[in-house]
Design a protein that fits this description.
The chain folds into two domains: 47 residues, no CATH class; 73 residues. The mean pLDDT is 85. Helix content is 50%, strand content 12%. With 157 residues, it is an alpha+beta fold. β1 and β2 form a beta hairpin.
């Protein structure tokens, strides 16, 4: 079936349906341009014809895709979380890793408040894990020194 279309006040065609679809795909014919074929009563916008546009046509220009928010300055503390889990206190390092892993995903979805909260919690758990290691180490050192000074390891019978 042959089609005619109007562009800039000029009637163009006849062209076959495949060529018209190609022009529509390339943007040479817009959804608002008038088209006609035998069997249509009058010229109609191409976008109104379901045979050319089975679903509603897209806007002529899609809005720009928003940039990913990666690198917006919210630290995730992932490497710190891993270090305190391996070297310090794994029961306290695991929550740090869980919160650290959430930061980038929340940030990419645009949930900056959630990303900041997860970042703060990851930092908190890193500090708690490192602090518990330091406190435990100092207590162990004090105990070892006291044992060395007071000779708790030898017995005299």
């Amino acid at each position: 079936m042959k089609w005619y279309y109007a562009k800039n006040g000029s009637q163009l065609g006849p062209i076959d349906e495949a060529e018209l679809r190609a022009k529509l795909d390339l943007g040479e014919v817009a959804a608002s341009d008038l088209v006609w074929r035998e069997g249509l009563g009058d010229w109609l916008p191409a976008g109104k014809l379901k045979e050319l546009f089975p679903v509603s046509p897209l806007p002529a220009a899609a809005p720009p895709i928003p940039p990913l928010l990666v690198g917006a300055g919210i630290p995730n503390y992932l490497w710190q979380s891993i270090l305190v889990t391996i070297f310090c206190c794994w029961p306290l390092g695991i929550p740090a890793i869980v919160y650290a892993a959430k930061v980038d995903g929340l940030q990419q979805r645009g949930d900056l408040a959630g990303a900041r909260t997860a970042s703060a919690k990851a930092k908190h758990w890193c500090i708690v894990a490192a602090g518990s290691f330091l406190v435990g180490s100092v207590l162990w050192l004090i105990f070892a020194l006291l044992m060395a000074v007071f000779g708790g390891g030898s017995s005299h019978y």
